[in-house]
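Give me C-alpha cells for this 174-residue protein.
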Amino acid sequence: MLEVKGVDGVQQTVWSTEQDIERIVDTYGNMLFRICLVILCNEKDAEDVVQDTFITYLNKSPIFNDAEHEKAWFITVATNRSRNKRRYNILRKHMDISDLQLYSMDDANYDLLDQLMRLPTKYKIVLLLHYVEGYKVGEISKIITITPSAVKKRLQRGRELLRETYRKENEYGF
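Here you go.
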C-alpha cells in the first residue's frame, strides 16, 4: 500500500496490484460467485463471470470513494455480465437444481434456494441483494439502475411468487 497525494492535494491510498487483487478476491469473491450463480444457474458460467469482473477491475483500475462504492461497483459489473452471459446462453442447458444443495449452508435453506432459483431473473437479483447481501432499496436501485419504486415492486412480487409456490407445495403435501 502506498500513500500518495492526488492532483487536488488530497491524500489517497494506492494498493499495489498483487496485494490489491488478493484483497479484492478475498473480500468479494464468494459474494460475487453467489450472486452470479443465482442469476446464471450454472457454476462454470458463474466462475467465468466473476473472473471477468476481476479482469475488468484490473484493466479499468477505477478509483472508489469508499468501501461501499467499491462493493457496489463489483456487484454492478458482475450482475451486468451475468445478464449478458444469460442472454448469450439462453439455449444452453442450465445447472441441475439438485446440484445447488452444495452451495446451501444447511438443508433448511435448500428449499428456499430451490424456489429462489426458479424465479425470473429480475426478482432473483433484488431478493438476493436485499435479503442475502443486506442492501437497502435505494442502494439496489442505484446498483441495477432502476427506480426505488421498481425495486420495491420487484421485492413485493418476488415474495408473492415465493409465497404462492410454498402454498401450492404445502397444499399438496410436497
